[in-house]
Design brief:
Order of helices and strands: HEHEEEHEHEHEHEHHHEHEEHHEHEHH
CATH superfamily of the largest domain: P-loop containing nucleotide triphosphate hydrolases
Bound molecules: guanosine-5'-triphosphate, magnesium ion
CATH topology of the largest domain: Rossmann fold
Structural class: alpha/beta
Shape: elongated
Number of helices: 15
Number of domains: 3
Length: 512
């Protein structure tokens, strides 16, 4: 296919002609752009940016010779990304078009092969979303970098391939492009050079920023909140989890359906992509509002069912103990070991969403009910707090909270504070809580000593090898007796230690 443009110098309108999508991540576009150049100034910065942005086979400039024939010729092609090197293209120059002695077919083929090799070497995968992470702060680089590490874990938990990370420190937030237009262009060029599909920002983008950045970049755009919501949607396995995750997605996306540049059909994908016209958008907005209403009703129903189950449990007078803590600290592993259960545990954030309750006998013969549930993270999106109310209310009904922290995490104190803040924001701070440090096997001696000194009463355990468990159980027993009184009765011990499963159901009422 050939296109010829005639007129004033202008940027190549590739996006309009070819659409946004490339053929494959490392593949070239199958188009070459040749610009005639009356002034003889050669390739411009804008030509070179187009080469990268559109992943053209090559971009060339031919000058007009003295007698009107073709004169000086130069072309640029992409070079594969190479570690820290910022070089994205190489330029070949010929004093006269007639001297062009290169087999361009062969050269383009070779370039494509080398781009493929570099893409795979950099961890890129054909069938997985490749992302660039962008950290941002108006204060300190180290804060942005620390937060970016967590974004990296979130991206991996969402099965994305992280191709690179970038950090921008700026005195003021750019209201339109967050990081400023110049920096954004640099990020986009880098993302496209690496063959990324999506740019994920570590800060919450306003709907207007998401639209503007999506429009400017032509890539899918996400922010931290959307990524967390996407993980919840991916990890939701039960009906309850799915309904709540869907509500969070809808609530997050509704205000972002403004104007052109977004499409709701991209739910769970990028928010900054091209979308339908105004009329269709209005129709979509109405549909979403209706769906939100229905989901809210369903969740209210779930809350009532859970409350009913809890009431039955309360009549048994067995104290309930809810596990809380930052995500991935080992709550479910600890729960499994204490209750002989088999909840899925993995080195991913937000593996557990739905609450599971089991009965456990303490060393003195008394029973408690233990509930494992969703973990927390700093800046937990408000849409999730609202949508997951059926799950979170379960925490609020506990007699005691078991706050699990990761002894081996250098950020453990900050994470304890984050969890406490969320507990306060949910107004559950009145519930007595026990702090426990897990992953003792992974903490070095120095860290262990520092924690023992700073938190002398706090039990240190390893859910992996069982160390510290008998002390922990005795400690729980002591606090239960002090805080809740002596209501914990021996009851009939159920050898499996199971009361109810993850799905609250009228058929699974507590037998107590
Ligand atoms: N070394 C070590 N690893 C542990 C320990 N406890 C848990 N883990 C690992 O930590 C990772 C997270 O464990 P989970 O039990 O899923 O953590 P969680 O707090 O329930 O996480 P979410 O449900 O995702 O919030 C898994 O890879 C576990 O194997 C421990 O005591 N020592
Ligand atoms: Mg868990």
């Amino acid at each position: 296919m050939r296109f010829v443009f005639v007129g004033e110098p202008c940027d190549f309108p590739f996006e309009k002609l070819l659409g946004r999508r490339r053929r494959a991540k490392y593949r070239l576009r199958g188009f070459r752009a040749v610009r005639t150049n009356l002034k003889g100034s050669g390739l411009t910065g804008s030509d070179l940016a187009t080469l990268v942005n559109e992943r053209l086979d090559l971009v060339a400039s031919v000058s007009v010779g003295q007698n009107g024939s073709a004169g000086r010729f130069e072309y640029a092609n992409l070079v594969p990304p190479n570690g820290e090197s910022q070089v994205k293209w190489e330029i070949s120059k010929f004093s006269d078009l007639g001297r062009l002695n290169v087999n361009l077919e062969q050269e383009i083929n070779d370039i494509e092969q080398s781009l493929r090799r570099a893409f795979l070497k950099n961890g890129g995968k054909e069938n997985r979303e490749g992302v660039i992470l962008v950290g941002f702060s108006t204060k300190f680089r180290y804060l942005a970098e620390k937060s970016l590490d967590e974004l990296n874990s979130l991206a991996l938990s969402a099965e994305k391939v992280v191709l690179d990370k970038m950090v921008q420190i700026r005195k003021n937030i750019d209201p339109r492009y967050l990081v400023g237009r110049g920096k954004l262009r640099e990020i986009v060029l880098h993302a496209k050079h690496l063959g990324a599909d999506t740019i994920i920002f570590d800060t919450e983008l306003t709907p207007a920023q998401a639209n503007a950045i999506g429009g400017e970049s032509g890539l899918d755009i996400m922010d931290r909140s959307q990524l967390i919501i996407q993980i919840f949607a991916k990890h939701a396995k039960t009906n309850e989890g799915k309904i709540q995750a869907r509500l969070a997605e809808y609530q997050y996306n509704l205000p972002r359906l403004k104007g052109k540049g977004t499409t709701f059909s991209q739910l769970g994908g990028g928010i900054g992509t091209r979308g339908p016209g105004e009329k269709k958008l209005e129709q979509e907005r109405r549909n979403i509002r209706k769906q939100i209403e229905q989901l809210e009703k369903q969740i209210d129903g779930l809350c009532r069912r859970r409350e009913h189950t809890r009431k039955n449990r309360k009549t048994s007078k067995i104290p309930t103990l809810s596990f809380i803590g930052y995500t991935n600290v080992g709550k479910s592993t600890l729960f499994n070991r204490l209750t002989k259960s088999s909840i899925v545990t993995q080195d991913k954030l937000f593996s557990t969403l739905n609450p599971t309750t089991r009965r456990v006998m303490l060393p003195g013969g008394k029973h408690v009910l233990m509930t494992d549930t969703v973990g927390f993270i700093s800046k937990l999106p408000k849409e999730l707090i609202n949508a997951f109310r059926a799950t979170l209310e379960e925490i609020g009904e506990a007699d005691l909270l078991l706050h699990v922290a990761d002894a081996s995490d250098p950020e453990v104190r900050e994470k304890i504070d984050s969890v406490m803040k969320i507990v306060e924001s949910m107004e559950f701070e009145y519930i007595p809580s026990i702090l426990v440090f897990n992953k003792l096997d992974q903490a070095d001696a120095e860290t262990e000593a520092a924690l023992r000194e700073a938190f002398p009463k706090v039990p240190l355990v390893s859910a992996k090898n069982g160390k510290g468990f008998s002390k922990l159980l005795s400690y729980i027993e002591k606090v239960v007796a002090e805080e809740i009184g002596d209501d914990a009765k021996a009851g009939d011990f159920n050898p499996e230690g199971r009361l109810e499963d993850t799905v609250p159901s009228p058929l699974l009422h507590s037998p107590f």
